């Protein structure tokens, strides 16, 4: 009995101890839970309710471009598109999405590279990829003598061709995965926007709940109402897979662009990117602590880019383009023209600086067929420069007036200038004794030489060295020329304008070449600005190709309200007396309207009272066939023509430039043929 009592006593004690221990533990747990709830409860509650917010920006259509008569030049064509937005998905999740998509859409696999296939194989077969690393290499990795990058490269190098063989279905999955994984987080990435069928678009739209991150939308591509006319000036837009240019990445990111946004990358599209780009729609999404999207809210509606109304008259532009093409082909068939391959025409309103047309054409060789064909080179009107010859003589005369070298009516004999140890410098024929007006009319070189000698304060004796006491003669003439736009930036609202090449030597003979346009080089746009300055009485107008910026319209076929008007800008005025300018204008009028004027035979009978100046420059060929001639490029003749009309109250100014027009002495007169047809066309269209 005593033994049983002792056993019961021990058992009771143990049970009590157990119950006490359990009680104690529960008490500690309750105290701990109470402490956690009281002290940390709010923090844990916030963690449970924590959500991450991010904003997705969706692109909007770019602004349109219209010509001065409001005809659509550049438009947007809508395209069905399928996009993917990485909302923080893992590689595995994105691969699953790619596999689902591959069953619903077809995807071109042309862009898949061997490296893509290797990366894909490693992702699909991680165990097999790890087996390609030897124990020794693993030891080196553990010893930190090689890096993760080194190991990954070893895996890539050891993948066999047999292992890399993918089926068509797998390639399609890879092509889709490649697009999905290349996107930036929270930024829509286009998976497919070419040839998306109605069926594909519909089936994706119906299954969006099973395709996390995938969406259907409308994408846009540029379309051109006038085909390739003026395309080089209108510019290009980056493609959806190009993204922002690396060298300007920070610039665009700071302005709210996404890394894969399309932007204007050349000419007008680039120059007016801020205007054309528009404001993207912004959608704010929230995710819970597991990464699932729990709320989506529209922050701002997108706004299409603003529209540009250009100064260009596209009907006139196309007619001028046709004239340039026809005359360039005709000139190419003339004797001594194997190097002739390009021509440029600029029409400008001398009162406002509005560019009406900028035509450039170039004959190029088709690398596939070997045949010659014509391509647009309107950019060449302001990005390429050439010796232009006597067209600059109006600036020479006005510079002579300003410097006191000559005065109205100053006569010079047209006898040639002979500097010691140099060939005789003369006009194309002996023109007798003449004043500055007749010198312009007949295009006397010698009159300009004598003017340059006076500007340089030089002393000339036949067959003796020529020197100048005015050591700034080159700068004086160049600065004066620049006030007309020659050798200076015209200020046109397009990028990459070239100012031209300035001859480096300061030998006295080159000063004589400078004043007849055979030393420095100029562009067709500079010539147009120069002749406009003479036409309007001395105001150098800034040329511009954008006339208005307009707000986007509610209806696609309407014009929005004017947001900004581009007003005429006077860059500078020419510091000359009105009498002096009048005398140059008279000389220019005689060039085209009186017998013995150098352009009279081509402009005889023109009813619009033209005025202008011809130019022929001796130059050396520097074109695409230059390497064929070694160190001795052949001498060629550049042809130019500047003009305006009517001679009183002019409304249009023109510059024509035909580089490397011919070799030898057979002048094909291409610049004058083009010039007459262009001016006739302008006034014919005006009358209509």
Automatic annotation (TrEMBL):
It catalyses: Preferential cleavage: (Ac)2-L-Lys-D-Ala-|-D-Ala. Also transpeptidation of peptidyl-alanyl moieties that are N-acyl substituents of D-alanine. Belongs to the transpeptidase family. This is serine-type D-Ala-D-Ala carboxypeptidase. Residues 59-297 form the Penicillin-binding protein dimerisation domain. SUPFAM superfamilies: beta-lactamase/transpeptidase-like (SSF56601), Penicillin binding protein dimerisation domain (SSF56519). It is a single-pass membrane protein. It is found in: Cell membrane; Membrane. The lineage of its organism: Bacteria, Bacillati, Bacillota, Bacilli, Bacillales. Residues 344-679 form the Penicillin-binding protein transpeptidase domain. Pathway: Cell wall biogenesis; peptidoglycan biosynthesis. Gene3D superfamilies: DD-peptidase/beta-lactamase superfamily, Penicillin-binding protein 2a (Domain 2), Penicillin-binding protein, N-terminal non-catalytic domain, head sub-domain. Its main location: membrane. Its EC number is 3.4.16.4. Keywords: Cell membrane, Cell shape, Cell wall biogenesis/degradation, Membrane, Peptidoglycan synthesis, Transmembrane, Transmembrane helix. It is an enzyme of class 3 (hydrolase).
